[in-house]
Amino acid sequence: MVVRLCSRGGLLPLLLFSPQKPKIYVPTAGRKAAYGTVTSAKVSVNGVHLHYQQTGEGEHAVLLLPGMLDPDPFPMGYSGSGETDFAPQLKSLNKNLFTVVAWDPRGYGHSRPPDRDFPVDFFERDAKDAIDLMKTLKFKKISLLGWSDGGITALFAAAKYPSYINKMVIWGANAYVTEEDERIYQGIRDVSKWSEKARKPLEALYGYDYLAKTCEKWVDGIGQFKHLPDGNICRHLLPLVQCPTLIVHGEKDPLVPRFHADFIHEQVKGSRLHLMPEGKHNLHLRFANEFNKLAEDFLQ
Ligand code: TYC
Ligand code: MN
Q: Which of 96, 191, 280, 299 could pair with 6 as two cysteines, CB 3.0-4.6 Å apart?
């Protein structure tokens, strides 16, 4: 394992007992870490080669879960891949406190093949993949930072694998689908109607055809829940969540109305709701410093 330069508890025993004492305390290693070495790798999980990025040496493992689409025309607001969704988190979350992993769910980012599909249990499948990935990487327990669809996946994971989850922060997630949501989904179905700014980065990652096809499949996939009782995605699971949970909501989010955050807040026992008055859907990018501080404080 990695030496934790900033933790006395971790360093002192090593200084006293390690035969390699002179090699251990190297200040430049700490600085290098502070500026961020991010490794990128693939590992076989549930029959798929899942891609992830990893940074930091902290004891506290944190998994970043990306969303599917972000048509909000913010330059860094593209998604579907841990690489692009979470640049400010990978760069700036405290590397002495946290080991941060950002994953690409199957069919997104560099976790292809397979092509992405959306069976009705796709959130459950993503949750199991995410947990099995982190177990494969030998993390004993993890916290979750889940955005949008990744927030929904985090809710599934927290409810179904409670003993493996430490804490959870989610934003832009919804536990059910309403008529209003369905109208918003239909509005983003055709990627040729997106702004150039929103489409270009995703097109560069996926190619136009895969992007267009996957967006349509996603709209159909998330639309399936509209036909279930109460538009249910994971309403039934919210009371099963046991971990400390922070829900962040951008009051100017054009994609996910406030009532979704309120509902999750009501249903998840002891959860905290933090509103960001100027935040939109991509609040972790637009207000990265504020968001990172909030998340770090909550996780500690
Ligand atoms: N859930 C999408 C994501 O994962 C974003 C989104 C939310 C899109 C609501 C449309 O009506 C919508 N990024
Ligand atoms: Mn990637």
A: 96
